[in-house]
Design brief:
The structure is a single chain. This protein has four helices and four strands, in the order ααβαβββα. The radius of gyration is 30 Å and the shape is elongated. It has 199 residues and is an alpha+beta fold. Strand 1, helix 3 and strand 2 form a beta-alpha-beta unit. The longest helix is centred in the C-terminal third of the chain and has 34 residues.
Length: 199
């Protein structure tokens, strides 16, 4: 009896399989990202941090219009000078349209305790409470509170045997914390003006 050959080709199970094409997966990912971007845009979301001063003139103009009120002591001077430089930026606002009142509180906490109960390392905590005000913008030409809050920055320094070196280290830690607090306040004000615009 003769055998009839099958028309179905055989498959070598030991042969290596080819990976599936990644192109469809990339297309799906790209479509998902595009959909998310459209959704955020429809909700009114606009990225703030990636924009430069030149591309966001409305925000920088409002920031440049903020007058920073006097803050007592040397710490207040450092904070105020740092914030004024940040607010000025490249804006051409009208200084005094807004007023920023600030209060600073500085505390220190000993961390590393020696055998004689003295601390060898300290944390400096700088807390800045701020209030953004639009003068004469409220009812009956009263001041209008636009935004307020508190920012906190912490830096550390070591207490060593040389008193002068410890003093310099302490002052540097406080100054860095004040400058960082000024940057945080600047960021919060930028977010406010980006969301609310001119008052």
């Amino acid at each position: 009896m003769s055998r009839t050959a099958s028309s179905t080709s055989s498959v070598d199970r030991n042969a290596p399989t080819r990976p599936a094409s990644r192109r469809p997966r990339r297309l799906v990912l790209a479509a998902a990202m595009a959909t998310a971007a459209l959704t955020l845009s429809a909700c009114g979301f606009r990225p703030l941090y990636g924009d430069t001063a030149a591309s966001r003139p409305a925000v920088t103009e409002q920031l440049a219009a903020v007058a920073v009120g006097p803050v007592p002591d040397r710490a207040g001077q450092i904070y105020r000078n740092s914030l004024e430089r940040l607010l000025a930026g490249e804006g051409r606002g009208n200084p005094g349209r807004y007023r920023l009142d600030s209060a600073i509180r500085i505390t220190e906490t000993g961390l590393a305790i020696n055998e004689d109960a003295t601390a060898s390392r300290y944390n400096v905590r700088v807390a800045v409470t701020y209030r953004l005000i639009a003068p004469n913008a409220g009812d009956n030409k009263t001041d209008r509170l636009l935004a307020d809050g508190t920012v906190t920055q912490i830096n550390g320094y070591d207490q060593i045997s040389a008193p002068y070196a410890t003093l310099v280290s302490r002052q540097d830690a406080i100054e860095r914390a004040l400058q960082e607090a000024a940057r945080e306040v600047h960021t919060r004000l930028a977010i406010y003006f980006d969301q609310h615009g001119e008052v």
